[in-house]
Specification:
single chain, mainly alpha, two-stranded antiparallel ribbon, two-stranded antiparallel sheet, 4 helices
Length: about 120
């Protein structure tokens, strides 16, 4: 039996259940093509700004279903560390600028399922 993700793609080797389907996606050529096509369209259509320096801004660079899968698999808020809680905080005193470094220590705080979900 071939298990597939909610995007209809085969699961990565080692995935054994339907629950794993939400966390493991094989980067098939079709998936890569969809992502690259949308990214290229957004960058091509972006307006280049010159002030205060030359740059461009793009939104919706991932197809909606891919973006939702990325957001769903982000680590929980407690896994992030505040940049500067004194400077960047909301009215409840909670940090609004947090960081998750890709070090062994920081990655070790993430649950196993989400730690491996980056293998999209």
């Amino acid at each position: 039996m071939l298990l597939t993700t909610n995007l209809g793609m085969p699961l990565m080797e080692g995935a054994t259940s339907a629950m794993d389907a939400n966390h493991y996606t094989v980067a098939t050529p079709r998936l890569v093509e969809r992502i690259v096509k949308q990214l290229a369209e957004r960058v091509t259509d972006a307006k280049v700004e010159t002030w205060p320096f030359q740059h461009f801004y793009v939104e919706n660079v991932f197809p909606d279903d891919i973006y939702q899968q990325i957001v769903t698999n982000l680590p929980a808020k407690p896994n992030y560390l505040p940049f500067n809680a004194k400077r960047w905080k909301n009215s409840q005193g909670e940090s609004t600028r947090d960081c998750l470094c890709l070090t062994e220590g920081d990655l070790g705080r993430i649950d196993d399922v989400r730690r491996h979900s980056g293998r999209m």
